[in-house]
C-alpha cells in the first residue's frame, strides 16, 4: 500500500463555477431577449386626421343700372361698364361647400370702410372717396373714381377673401360725377359729345366748350348762336341802309361777310362753373346758355349801341336775354357791359 506523506492540495471545483457562470449568462441572455422582444411589439402609431379642405370664397354676381338681377360677374367686368355714384349696386358672394358660412361674409370698400355682411350686400358708392371740396372749383379735369370692394369670411383656423374693382371707365362719367357731387341734376351720358363736333360756320369748338374736358353738352347752342348772329347782322344792315341810302356797297359787304360776334362762354362743367363764380344752377352747365360780345367797329355805331342791337337780336323765341357787367345785370347801353347773356 502506498502512502503519501505531507498535506493534501485542494482540488479546485472548476466544474461547479463554470455551471454557475453559464446559468448566469443564460439568465442575462434570456432577460435581454425578452427585453428586445417587448421593445419590438409596440402599439400602432395613431393615424393623423386628414387635413381639412381649404376654404374658398367667391364674388359671383352683381346687379346695378343696365345690369339687371342675376347678371354674370365676368360679363360685367369685361364690359367696360362705367357709373356715377347716384346709382345702387348689389353684390353676391358665397363659400362653396360651406353654405352655412355665407351669412358670416363681411364686405368693405378700401379707404371707405365696412358696408355690410351676408351673402348679398346692397350699397351706394361713397362720393367722399376721393373727397370733393365744395366751393373751390377747378380749371383742370377731375379723376376717375376707383373702388376696391372685398368680401371675406373667417372660421376656426381658416379664412378666405375675394375682391372686385369697380372703376369709372367712361370719360363722360367723370364729368357727370361733378353733377352728383354738386347735388344738381345729372345729364345723361348721351348728351355729351366730343368737342370736335361742336363747331359751326362762325364759332369754334373753343368758344362752345368753356369746360375742363374734351366733351361738352352741345344741345342747341350752335343753332341758336348762328341764328342770333344772322339776326344781329340783319339789324345792322337795316340801320345802315336807313341812315346811308347811298352806301349800297358797304351794305352789300356787311350782308356778304357779316359783322362778327365772339362767344365768351358756352358750356361749362360744374367745377369750372364754380371756379368762375357761376350760379349753382347755371344753364351753362347744361348747354343752355351763351354769352356773346360784338366784335370790331361798325360804321356809325357805338359799342353800347351794338350791345343793344345784340340784345334785341337774341331776344326771339322767348329766350331769357340780358346784359351783364362782371356778373351783374345792367341795361344794354350801360358803361362797362361785357357780354349779353342768352338763356336757351
Can you describe this structure?
The protein has 344 residues and is of the alpha+beta class. The chain folds into two domains: 124 residues, Immunoglobulins (Immunoglobulin-like); 155 residues, Muramoyl-pentapeptide Carboxypeptidase, domain 2, CATH 3.30.1380. Helices cover 28% and strands 25% of the residues. It is built from eight helices and 15 strands. The strands form four sheets. The chain has a five-stranded antiparallel β-sheet. Strands 2-1-3-6 form a four-stranded antiparallel β-sheet. Strands 5-4-7-8 form a four-stranded antiparallel β-sheet, with no helix packed on it. Helix 5 crosses helix 8.
How is this structure best summarized?
The chain has helices at 14-40, 73-77, 171-181, 205-208, 221-243, 248-257, 270-275, 303-314, and strands at residues 58-64, 67-72, 88-94, 106-109, 113-117, 120-124, 146-155, 158-167, 192-194, 215-217, 261-265, 289-294, 320-325, 328-330, 339-343. It has 344 residues and is an alpha+beta fold. The chain folds into two domains: 58-181, Immunoglobulins (Immunoglobulin-like, Sandwich); 189-343, 2-Layer Sandwich (Muramoyl-pentapeptide Carboxypeptidase, domain 2), CATH 3.30.1380.
